[in-house]
Amino acid sequence: MSEKIGVMVCGHGSRDTAAVTEFEAVARGIAERLPQFGVDSGFLEFARPIIRDGLDRLRESGHDHIIAVPGMLFAAGHAKNDIPSVLNTYQAQHDGLHIDYGRELGIDTKMMRAAGERIEEAVRGAGDHIARHDTVLVVVGRGASDPDANSNVAKVMRFLWEGLGFGWGETAYSGVTFPLVEPGLEHVARLGYRRVVVFPYFLFTGILVKRIYEHTDLVAARHPEIEFIKAPYLNDHPLVLDAFADRVQEILEGTGNMNCQLCKYRQQVLGFEDQVGLPQESHHHHVEGIGTGDGPGHAHGHHHHGHDHDHDHDDDHGHHPYPHADHPLGPRTLKPDGDG
Fold first, then answer.
1. Is 33 contained in some domain?
2. What letters, b where the CB count within 10 A reaches 16 and e where it falls short, cover 296-312?
3. Is residue 192 helix, strand or coil?
4. What is the span of the domain harbouring residue 184?
C-alpha cells in the first residue's frame, strides 16, 4: 500500500492576531503550491492551533508520512530543538506514522530576491531625490542566543547591500543579542549618510516588527537631517512561498539537510563552547495555545528549566544563559518606551 504524504507547516506563534492571520495566509499559499499533498499548520506557542492539532488532523485524514517544515527564516533554538522535540514525541506516540523534518528557509536566492523587492518598494515610495550611494541599508533580524542564526542575518544584509548598491550596510536585532535597533541606528546616524532604509527581515508582523518601526521613529526624531525609510517585512511574498515549497521538495529528493557545521549544539562555537550536546527538548509546552484567543492577557514571568520567561516578549526565551547578556548595545528585547 502506498504512503499518503501530508505537509505540516510549523509556526512559532504570536499574541498578535495580525501575525497569526498572516501565517495562516502563508500556509494557504504553500498549500496552493502543493496541491498533491494535504497541508496543515500549527504553532509552537502563543496561538492556536498548536502543532499537535495539525498533526492530528493530517493523521486522522489518513496521512502516514508527514513532511514538517519550520515556518522560520533561520535555525536557532526553535527550529533546532523545540519543534523537533514536539515532532519526535508525536511520532513516538503513533505507530505507523513517519515524520520527516525539513530545513528552515535559510540563505536562499529566492529569499534574497523577495527581500530586495520589499526594499525597492520602500525606496520607490520615498522618491529618488537622494542617491543610493548616499543611503545606508539597515537589516534588522529577530535576534537569537545562537550565533549561527545571528550571523545569517548579517549575511543577508551583505547580499542585499552589495546586490542593491547602497552606500553602506549595517545589521541590528530586535532582541536577545546586540546591537539592538536604537543603538544600531544611532551608530548609523553618525556615519554621515542622508538616508537610512530600515528593513525588518521578518516573515510576519507582531510586537517586534512594530517596535522596530517605533524605535526607528525615535531615532529619526533626534536626527531630522536624515531621512529614515521603514521598508515592509517579507510576509506572503510569492518568492517566499516558492521557497517553502522548495523545502518540501528537498525532503522528497533526499537533499534537505540542515547545515550543522556552525551549530552551537554540535560544534564548539566561539563563546558558546559549554552548549555542545545540550538535550534536544522543547521549553514551550507550558505556553502551547496560550495567546491570541485565550481571554485576558497572559503576560507573566516563569522560572522554568533554569531560565527566565517573560511571555510579553517574542524573544528567544533564554534556553541557555547568553554569554554577552551585559553588552552595552543589547541584548534586552525592544521595549515600547525606547529604553532598549
1. no
2. eeeeeeeeeeebebebe
3. coil
4. 109-230
